[in-house]
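Structure first, sequence second, as always.
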């Protein structure tokens, strides 16, 4: 049974049977799959975005990411999200893998892409940042970004992990 529904996720309470035969009531956060982009404008460089995250009441440096819309492939979502968040379209995408960041309570899957051959979008493009997003875009060297993780300046786990894939 769905006990809560928001624009981004829903919470479902259900009874499940575990592999050992025992049954338990559990709550699961149902969240659509997302794409995580590692935009590489040039060798040794990565683009990060800075945005306010109300859930932790602070701005964070992150890799661009976003949900896969119904009917969209992960690759299509990666291109759209890149255009919406950094105003560049990747013409080369390499899928690096997919992982579940919090499988203890959430079914969200994160699909990571290396995004290269970044180009300006077509002039008639309608892709823009979401209304509630106020994004700052900045290029870093990969070493700078990895050092930011080590210093605790990057606290977003998908970003910290994504930077290890470069």
């Amino acid at each position: 049974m769905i006990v809560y529904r928001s624009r981004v996720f829903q919470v479902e309470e259900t009874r499940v049977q575990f592999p050992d035969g025992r049954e338990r009531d559990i709550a699961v956060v149902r969240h659509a799959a997302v794409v995580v982009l590692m935009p590489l404008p040039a060798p040794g460089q990565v683009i990060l975005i800075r945005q306010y995250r109300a859930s932790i009441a602070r701005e964070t440096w992150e890799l661009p990411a976003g949900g896969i819309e119904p009917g969209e492939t992960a690759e299509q979502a990666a291109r759209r999200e890149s255009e919406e968040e950094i105003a560049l379209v990747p013409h080369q995408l390499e899928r690096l893998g997919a992982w579940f960041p919090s499988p203890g309570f959430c079914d969200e899957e994160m699909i990571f892409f290396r995004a290269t051959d970044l180009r300006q979008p077509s002039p008639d493009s309608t892709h823009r940042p979401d209304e509630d997003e106020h994004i700052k875009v900045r290029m870093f060297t990969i070493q700078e970004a990895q050092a930011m993780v080590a210093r605790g300046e990057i606290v977003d786990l998908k970003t910290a992990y994504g930077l290890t894939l470069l």
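Margin note: The beta strands are 2-5, 9-17, 23-31, 34-39, 45-53, 58-62, 65-67, 89-99, 110-119, 136-141.
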